[in-house]
Amino acid sequence: MLSRSTLSKAQAVARLNSVPRNALAATMLRAALLHTLKPRQQASAATATATTASSVEAAALSSSAAAQQALAPLDTFLRRHNGPRESDVETMLQALGFKTLDEMIAATVPDSIRLPEPLHIAEGEYAERELLAKLKQIAQKNKVYRSFIGTGYTDVVVPPVILRNILENPGWYTQYTPYQPEISQGRLESLLNFQTVVSDLTGLPAANASLLDEGTAAGEALVVCLNSTRKKTRNVFFADINCHPQTLAVLKTRAEGFGAEIVVADYKSFDFASLGDRLAGALVSYPDTYGNIGEYKALADQVHELGGQLVVVADLMSLA
Predict the structure, then answer these.
(1) What's the whole-number average pLDDT of the chain?
(2) Is the dihedral of CA 194, 197, 201, 203 positive or negative?
(3) Is pLDDT above 80 for 251?
(4) Percentage of residues of the chain with pLDDT beyond 90
(5) For 5, how many CA atoms within 13 A lie in the half-sphere containing its CB?
């Protein structure tokens, strides 16, 4: 008996003998082509699979980057900074005749004041919340001791109601309009309240306020005293030796531009009569740089008799 495999081969040979020669050649050619193309199709399929995997991986990375950007802190400098677009920069550079920003900076900023390498600010960009937390962490390393510096730098207790409703009130330091970045409105309102308090504490009919520090304010008071007199020879300004040293330093610098003479001495022992009609004004401090409280009524009467003005640098808390 013949095996099943032998019968299958015999049947296949019989079938081939029954097929016409043209059809047999076409069949064999088709089989050869399929045998040749099959590995290429498999390779193409593998390449397509790899390409699809790469596309999926790239899409995943892109989605991850987009998610990180969307969830990034909004209070970082770059995200809050409204700078020019790249097209705007190119337009401006073209109008100025430069190709790059580095070329423009090299032509305008001298080498002696330009850093050759990029400015290193931090290891990474901090959000405002992260930066405040880091600054608090650094500040905790400070050791707080009792200060005996004096010279006007005295500690005070700010009532929480004032701290909460004025100093921490966003209405005081938020810009009035988007195109007005400065805090003009809150500043003007705070100055109005400040000069009203000054008028109440000093008992004066009028008061003027500014954002000047004590030394600069004393310099402005010097200018007021010089301009209030009609005599050009009245150009001597007296300053008590116990005024704060930073105030005296600014006062002397300010006097140079106006040709005024600053006399620094102790108001208790100084002979004001020796100045005669040259005295434009006198400056004293309340309290002085050592914390002493002086009585200036007699000094005020003497300076006014000579035609001068008395200027008092006062700590408002000492007038309350």
Answers:
(1) 79
(2) positive
(3) yes
(4) 34
(5) 0
CB atoms within 10 A of CB 319: 14
| Secondary structure (3-state) at 240 | strand
**Element at 275 (helix H, strand E):** none
Task: Burial-class residue 13 by CB neighbours within 10 Å (0-12, 13-18, 19+).
Answer: exposed
Residue 309 identity? Q
Residue in 265, 274, 280, 273 with CA at minimum distance from that of residue 233: 280
Higher pLDDT, 232 or 23: 232
Query: Residue written as tokens 């900023």?
Result: 109
Which uninterrupted H or E stretch holds 180? none
Return the pLDDT at 1: 45
Q: Locate the DSSP E strands across the chain.
A: 236-240, 261-265, 279-286, 309-314
Instruction: Give me the sign of the Cα torsion angle 264, 266, 267, 269.
Output: negative
Rounded CA separation 29/22 (Å): 11
* Euclidean distance between CA atoms 224 and 309, whole angstroms: 9
Instruction: Copy the structure tokens of residue 245.
Output: 């040293």
124-130-134 Cα angle (round to 5): 90
8 A C-beta contact, residue 103 and residue 50: no
CA dist., res. 187 & res. 170, Å (int): 12
DSSP 181: -
**In the block, residue with structure tokens 């400056």:** 283
Q: Pick the most confident of 15-24, 138-147, 216-225.
A: 216-225
Say what the alpha-carbon torsion angle 170, 172, 175, 176 is, to the nearest 10 degrees: 110
Angle at 198 between CA 295 and CA 209, to 5 degrees: 120
Residues 6 or more apart in contact with residue 190 via CB below 8 angstroms? 166, 172
Per-residue confidence (pLDDT) for residue 180, from 0 to 100: 63
**pLDDT at 155 exceeding the cut of 80:** no
Query: How far apart are the C-alpha atoms of 143 and 90, rounded to whole Å?
Result: 51
For residue 13, the model assigns a pLDDT of 42
